[in-house]
Amino acid sequence: MIRFRVAEGAQVEFGERLAAAVEVLSRQKGFVAARTGRNVDDPELLALSMEWVNVGSYRRALSPYEVKLVAVPLLSEALDEPSAYELLEDGSGGVDLLL
Question: Which of 8, 16, 24, 84 has the highest CB neighbour count under 10 A?
Fold first, then answer.
């Protein structure tokens, strides 16, 4: 989960850059899915949620030149906070819990 603070007037341009970053990342080995969202209480707070096979896949995905050129500059604008989360299983093989 990666969060960004983006002024409402800059969100169209940011959205274009975000789409380009997700597109280049989606071609990397281990990519599963990406979703974007806007906070309902603070419309300047945007989020990018990405799912990878494992954290190593994500870290390796940041290495190719094209990713460094397109995605890394945008990702460097993220809020300075932890961004990697893992799903916690309930032990019964049932629903995953994200606490």
Answer: 24
